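ingest -> validate -> predict -> emit
validate: passed (alphabet ok, no gaps, 330 aa)
predict: started
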Amino acid sequence: MRSTFCGKGLHHLLFLIQNFRLRIIGINVFGEIIKKSDNEYQFNPSTIFTGNKYFTIWREVDKSRTRHLFLRVAHVNDRESELHDLGEQIKAMNSSVKWIGDARLFTYGGKLQLVFDTGHSEAPNRIFITVLDINKVSVTSVKEVKKLDGRKEIEKNWNFFEEGQNLFAIYTHQPFTIIELAKETEEFLYFRTVITHFYKSSSNSKIRGEIRGTSTPILVGNLFISLTHSSFITKKGFVYQSHYFVFGSTYPFLPVSLSIKPINYGIVGKILRPSVKLNQSVHQVEFPSGAFKAGKNLILGFGLNDFKVGVKVIKLSKILSQRSSIEIEL
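emit:
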C-alpha cells in the first residue's frame, strides 16, 4: 500500500485480527502504540513484564524523519497507559549519543534495563546499557559496553540475559558464543567471552543467511527461547526471516534446537508497505524484536518492513516440540 491513509487503515484492520487472541487472554500491550500516534513509522517493539506493569519500547519516525525511542507503561489489563520519550532522556544524560537503534528491554539485579547501539551512524559503533527507574520511569544511568577480547567495527543485537545473579549476553548465534560481565566502572561495562559452541543442525538447509540475534531470551523451565533472524538478497532487495533458537538455561548454555523452518507471519509483510522506505536496500522485513511469556503462550512482537508493529501469539508447547535437534561439534 503506497497511500499512507490506506496503509494506516489496513494496518489497523490487520492488527485487530492479529491482536484478537491477545485480547482474549487479557493482555493489551501493543494496542496503544497504533491508536495514539500520527506518525507513519512505528516498528520493532520490545516488551517486558516487571513490577506488575508491562513496559514496551519501540522505534518511531515522524514526518521530518526524526527518529524517536518511545516507552509505554501499562498496568496489567489497563486500557490507559503512560507514554515517555526515552530517547530524549538518554540523549540528555549522554550528549555523545546521536543515534539509538536496536533497543531491547531486559532485567538484571532486579532492575529494568535496556540495551541499544548507535547503528551505522559511526564507525566503530557503540553499544550502551541504560538502567531505568520503573517508578519514576526515568533513566538513571547510561554506560557503554566494551568487549575485552575484541569485536567487529559495526556490531548490533547483543541479547542480554541473567543467570545465577550474573549478566550474560549472546554475542553470536552462529557459532553460539556467550559473553559475561567481567568488570563495571562508572562509565563502562566490560564483557569477556566465556564459551563458544560450534554446532550442526538439519534446519540450516532451510534457513538462508547467517543466523543473528534479535530479542531478549525468554526463560521457560530449564530452557531459554531466543528469537533470531537471517537475511538473503533477492532482485528486489534483502528479505529477512525469523526463527526460534533454544538453549540450556545454565552454564555452559548448550544449544538445544533451531526452528525446523522460518516463522510464518502470514501475508502482512507482503501487504503493509511504507510510502517511502527508511532502508532502500531491503524488500521484506519481518523482525522479531521482542517476546514475552504469558501463561502457556509466547507473545511475539515484531517489526514489519521498518514500518509497523505486528503481534503473534504462539503456544510454547508448539515451539518446544517443533524443533530440529542440534549436534555440538567438539
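The longest helix spans residues 4-24.
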